Amino acid sequence: MPKVSQRAQSLGTENAFIVLAEVNKLLREGRDIVSFCIGQPDFHTPVHVQDAAVKAIREGKHGYTPSAGIAELRQAVADEILRTRGIAVSPDDVVVGAGAKPFIGYTILSVTDYGAGDEVIYPVPGFPIYESQIKASGAVGVPIFLREARNFSLDPNELAALITPKTRLLILNSPQNPTGGVIPKKDMAAIAEVLRAHPQVWVYADEIYGRLIYDGEFHSISSEPGMQERTIIADGLSKTYAMTGWRLGYMANRQLAPFFTTWITNTESCASQITQWAGVEALIGPQDDADRMREIFQQRRDVVVSLLNDIPGVTCQSPGGAFYAWPNVTEACRITGCRDSEEFRQRLLNEAGVAVLADIHFGPRAEGEGQHIRLSYAASDQAIREGVGRIKAFVAKGNS
User: Fold this and answer.
1) CB-CB contact of 311 with 305 (8 Å)
2) What average pLDDT does the segment 317-328 reach?
3) Which of 196, 279, 320, 344 could make an SS bond with 182 (beta carbons 3.0 to 4.6 A apart)?
4) Residues spanned by CATH 3.40.640.10 within the chain?
5) Percent of the chain with pLDDT over 90
6) What is the dihedral of CA 266, 271, 272, 275, to 10 degrees?
7) Quick check: 175 and 209 in contact, CB under 8 A?
8) So what CATH class is 62-284?
C-alpha cells in the first residue's frame, strides 16, 4: 500500500466538528442534547442578502470571477475597512476567498519557508487551525499563552520575550475564539511598539469577530502607526451576517495581495460569484439585522455568564466579544470527580445531554491556568437556560 505523507498525518482538525458528529450520533439515537459546541449564529441570513443572491442567479451571475474577487465586492471591503479601522485600503489590496479560514494557510505559506526553522507565534488557547496550518506548512509554532488574570489579552512583555531572529509571523485574534477576550487599545499599542523593534515579523490579524464587541470599541493592530503595511487583515461575513455556509472571507495587504490571488488560483479558483454578490449587499445594504444580532448576542452573553457563575465550582469572566464563554471549571471537576475538563466534557455530553468543548481542543493548558470549557452562546435563550441548568444539576449531583 502506498504511504501517506507526514504532512497529511500531522494535519490537525477543528474538534468542534468532531464533537458535533458525536452530538448528531446521539440525536439519531433519540437522545435529547443541548449543543453549545459550534460557533455558528442561529439566525437566518438577512432577507435582503438572500434576495441579492437570488437576483445574481436569475441574472446569470454564476460563472467564474477573477481569483481576487469581483471589483464591486473588493471596493465594498475597502470601504468597510476604512469605516471600521480608520485606514485607507485600495480595492487592489483586497483578495476575496471562500471563507476566511483559507487565508490562515495562505499567509503561513507566503511568509515562511518549509524546513527553514521559520517561527510563527500563535495564541493558546486559540483557534486550532492556527497550529494545524503551522505544522502542515513546515514552520515552527511558538505558543503565547492567554491568561485569565489578563482577561485573556495577549501580554506584550511575553511577546517580546518570544520573538527571535527566526520569527516571521505573529497571529493575533481579537475578539478571540475560544475565550471571547478582547485586546484593549493600550495593549494593542504596546504590541505594536514591541513589533517595531522586529521589522521582519508579519502580523496576521484575525478580526472575524470585529463587529461583535460588547464592551468598548474594536481596535485593529493595522490602525497603529507603521503597522498597516505589515498586517494581513483577515475578516469575513460569516459571523456578523449569519453567513457561515455561504463561505465568504477576505484579506487586505498591499504586498501580499498578488500572492494570495495566486494561491486562490491554485486552489479554489475563486469564491462563488453568487455569494460575492450577496456579500456586496451585506456590506453596503441595511445594517439593521447585523446590529440586532449583535444586541441579542450581548443579551445572551449576560444571561449565560450570570447562570454559569451561579453554579458551585464554576467561575466565568464576562467576554468582551465574539459569542463564546470560557468558564473555569477546575473546582467543578473536583466536585464531580472528573480528572480534567475533557472528562468533564464527555460526562456532560453522555450523562447530562450537554455538548461543550474542553480547553485541550484549543491547545495545551498553560501552567497554573486550571481547567476550562467553551460554550458557544450562539443558541436560543431557551437552550442556554436549559443547557446551563443541566450543567448545574450535573455538578450538584456530584456534590451530593
Assistant:
1) no
2) 96
3) 320
4) 62-284
5) 87
6) 170
7) yes
8) alpha beta
